[in-house]
Amino acid sequence: MEEIRIGVSGLGGRGRYWIHLLQTIPGFRIVAIHDPIVALHDVARKGLQSPEHVKACSDWGDFLGDREMEAVALCVRCKEQGGMAADAMEAGKHVHSEVPAAHTLEDCWRIVLASERTGLVYQLGEQTRYWGFVDPWRNLVASGQLGRITYCEGQYIGYYPGLYFKDPQTGQAIMPHDLSKNPQARGTWLNDMPPIHYLPHELSPMLKVLDDRVVEVVGMSTDAPSFAHPEIGQPDIQAALMKTEKGAVLRMTTGFSQPIPEHDHHWYHVMGTKGSVEWRRSDRDMPRLWLADAQMHDFAEVDWRYARTDAPPEAWATGHGNADYYPHAAFRDAVSKGKALEFDAYKAIETAAPAILAADSIAQGSKPFRVPDFRPGSSRPRGQAPANP
Ligand SMILES: NC(=O)c1ccc[n+]([C@@H]2O[C@H](COP(=O)([O-])OP(=O)(O)OC[C@H]3O[C@@H](n4cnc5c(N)ncnc54)[C@H](O)[C@@H]3O)[C@@H](O)[C@H]2O)c1
User: Fold this and answer.
1) Which of 69, 131, 355, 360 gives a 20 to 30 Å CA spacing to 283?
2) How far is it, in rounded angstroms, from Cα 53 to Cα 30?
3) CATH number for the domain including 143?
4) CA 180, CA 97: separation in Å to the nearest integer?
5) Nearest-angstrom CA–CA distance, 308 and 134
6) Atom of ligand 1 nearest to the CA of 125
7) Predicted confidence (pLDDT) per residue in 298-342, tens digit
8) Number of domains the chain is built from
9) Inside any domain, residue 330
């Protein structure tokens, strides 16, 4: 198999895990690594099979200028994430980006336009859309068994106090309660980012289930700073109400700074005029299904899991219930074999733009916003910037 010559930018926990994946899943050869924190280059090198053949860069321009590199794996955590993806495509590189796709609407448009103008592959590495329950839920919706979909919920309430502050020289995480002992600590992007920006793991699987896109958004938030950890600059909970093109109402919620029980920080629910499905509430619970037309007086428990029953051996032991394999395989097959992406740049941006606008809504007293249609059509030819972005 032709190997894709790929560079990895962002050498934190996730970038180093991607280095492992890119050397485990066939079809990739890592040729460069990049992070402004130089101390992380050696840490990342320890995970490389042939470190002597890999160039390490601290400058983004040097990294992008590498002529051998034909694709960029973007594992940075910063406001510029979307702009960097567009930079990379504009420099002639295919892009496989970690989530979320972008943090500004301008960068959403830059990604769409760069992918249209260059024809290069842009894949968002959102993996929960490959979880085991997603396709059966999608089939229930597509076959009409749930009737007309009226309501859908997704929430990601995790607890990551170690992600908000770092030592800028070493990249070491610093806990909020250790800040006084570490005056060198600096807030990470998470300390500035409205939590509702992190909706890819909710919008991606649920929009796949609904085969729909968000057209209208309004948001609301608890107050900042965090009540749970006042050192953290962001609120504990942000929620968005959204309306889809097909007319369903969504409730999407995020929060990353307050304690929760371990496991299952995601939760989903889809309700239609003829039935509903619901994710489990804890590890001791089960997902549920109820169909109005099936003589069911109550919900039935169904053993849907994150792991798929049909995962190929290559996927076994990849993270998030084997799901981390699928975006990498899709990216590889799109670049190497020209196979069309199921999760293309438009669908990727449809997971980012409503989240960005939810934060804008919160900042403007819960003002409602329309979500632009990023697909080309009669009002915007392919490759042309929109008249009113
Ligand atoms: N798909 C998933 O399940 C999943 C899980 C965790 C994280 N993520 C995503 O992966 C990405 C990385 O997460 P992480 O936990 O490794 O974060 P991290 O903070 O541990 O590491 C991010 C790295 O990016 C570097 N970086 C920051 N700004 C940069 C810039 N402008 N240019 C180059 N490098 C820059 C930092 O120096 C840091 O080393 C984030 O986008 C995050 O949202 C996805």
Assistant:
1) 355
2) 9
3) 3.30.360.10
4) 35
5) 10
6) 1
7) 999 999 999 999 999 999 888 888 999 999 999 999 999 999 999
8) 2
9) yes
